[in-house]
Amino acid sequence: MDMLLGIYGFIHDERLPQRTAPQKVNIEVEREKKWVKMLAHWDTPETKQKLHRRIYKGIPNSLRINTWCKLLQVNRIKFENPGKYQDMLKLGKLWSTDVRQIDSDVNRQFREHQFYRERYSEKQCALFNVLCAYSIYNSEVGYCQGMSGLAGVLLMYMDEEDAFWALAILLSDKRYAMHGLFIEGFPKLTRFLEHHDKILTKFMPKLKHHFDKFGLDAILYSLKWFFVCFVERVPFSLCLRVWDIYLLDGERVITAMAYTILKLHKKAIMKLNDMDLIVNYIQVKLHKDFGYDDDIVIYHLEKSMEELRRAKLDYPGPPPPNELPQRMLGVFVEPDKKSKIGQRAENFSETEKQTRANVILRREKAALELQELRVSQSDTVSEHSGLTGGVRCDDSVSGLGSRRSLADTSVTSTADLSVFSSGRSHAPDNSLDTHSNVSDDGTGSDG
Amino acid sequence: MTTAPGGTNNFKVVLLGEGCVGKTSLLLRYIEDKFNDKHLTTLQATFLNKRLNIKGKRINLSIWDTAGQEKFHALGPIYYRNSNGAILVYDITDEDSFGKVKNWVKELKKMLGSDIVLIIAGNKVDLEHERTVPLEEAESYANMVGAKHYYTSAKLNQGVEELFLDLTREMLEKYEQNSQTEVNRTSQVLVVDDETPVQSSCCSGTKSN
């Protein structure tokens, strides 16, 4: 088998599709020239005017590093905090209680990328350093799994110190506010998932119903969408395009991209009648092959953003105070005795209990809605599913009123039983057991 | 619900345990028979499938792997709901990871009662000389809570096959008991005849992506 280095540095064991036609290369060269000019005149009205359109077309890979740094204003925060990174790193190496987890995750992050392939390579060490320093810089977060993915991508383009500050901005700047994703109880995840479910209910009730039918909570397929902005969930070239736009437009992009992915693949997902198959499709298949050209996806992403904006569903609102850093960033807090000796918590904290209650409640609510839907559906005469082209959404009537095909209704009948017959009070969640079929295509075994 | 001839039993199994105790390694050893210390972090639960035959019955296991960092344990219910079996993994050289197993047992008992088959796995026996979790303690604890205890090494491929095989046998037994005693209740496992897949009724004639 050929070992090939892709343009983004990943090592592939198959021939890559040759997709860049000569005229496309020329266009790329022309675009780069324009970008160089624009970067030289960053803080001008002309740039402001052109930036949106050009970023949605994709930042030329050779200029990504400069552009990302400018979008995140890395230089500003770096110059405002001279020597800070080195201080944090020094303290981190002495005090951080997260080093074990960080080291173990560095060992597992992007190992198929040329930079991270060798254990203790320069970039692996840089990744360790950035995360170690950050765990001291932001003592409320410390280190949370997922952050190695963010820092890992940043370090593909930036040096250590820039990547540290870029990560700091992604977590604490209001435009991205990822802090709330990584703190105890993941409050921002809960809030964004609820919003995501609301969007599904409004625009794709059939798909939402399909997920609920198999007891598929959005966490099971979308955690990485929210935590690491689609890293390892869509092909890397597309992921970078989404990052370009995320860095420009912030949080709304994640919500809209989540919607776009499901919109583009709704038809295929609706055919999968098993939780495992659906999860495998969304997590594994779409990472390997998204099935649409990057440009087309971005076109739909932009349309989704508009569509959500019109429906006032583009943004779940600004972060409440508990999702933002409460403690001063960059101030060293000595870890308490418990975390120093690595003692684990006996019980869940109040925040964690809340999170648990939330996830359980969400499933119960979905089960209940499904039940109501079934009841009302049994009176409804159904016709056709009204779908063309694969990227259109359901008639945005509420799930209760939407039309369903007879075939669809007959398939759901196996799951009906499990919903109505659930009587186990200690495990309300189990009411949605629906491993209703077996397929023979070795799902997931290639993961 | 009875097992149709030629039908396949689907069981869901969830791997739980602290970070770095070797959950993913156990899974990879079992499914792909390889040990790889370069594997990916399990941030999001992922699963692998395994098909096997026991007592002439076709079984499909879907084994779910979970994130180990303590912060993620609050999301536990999402991962273990609907599971027929749970493998609680600890590292024999790390006492705290054994403590965490006890927490999981408590939680699973509370949430799922005896509906779930529990297995405790003391992993990394290749590091026997660094053992800190006493043998007797682990085994008697497992006994007390009605879980089977196994010693495993994903690295040396010890005990892994046996663990999954026994777990599957127990899940099958439990399932058969349940379907005998509660004929009318929809069981945790739906058995579907391979020859007539249910989904064909809605898929035929539509083109795939």
UniProtKB/TrEMBL annotation, chain A:
The Rab-GAP TBC domain, residue ranges: 58-250
InterPro entries the record matches: Rab-GAP-TBC_dom, Rab_GAP_TBC_domain
Ranges of compositional bias, category Polar residues: 431-447
Region (Disordered): 420-447
Pfam family, one: RabGAP-TBC
Superkingdom in the source lineage: Eukaryota
One GO MF term attached to the UniProt entry: small GTPase binding
Name of the protein described by the UniProt record: Rab-GAP TBC domain-containing protein
Species: Manduca sexta
UniProtKB/TrEMBL annotation, chain B:
Keywords: GTP-binding, Lipoprotein, Membrane, Nucleotide-binding, Prenylation, Protein transport, Transport
Pfam families registered for this protein in UniProt: Ras
GO molecular function: GTP binding; GTPase activity
GO terms classed as biological process: protein transport; Rab protein signal transduction
Main location class: membrane
Annotated localization: Endomembrane system
CDD domains: Rab21
The keyword Transport appears for this protein: yes
Keyword field contains Nucleotide-binding: yes
Gene Ontology CC annotation, any one: endomembrane system
Membrane topology reported for the UniProt record: Lipid-anchor
Family: Belongs to the small GTPase superfamily. Rab family.
The protein's name: Ras-related protein Rab-21
Organism of derivation: Manduca sexta (Tobacco hawkmoth)
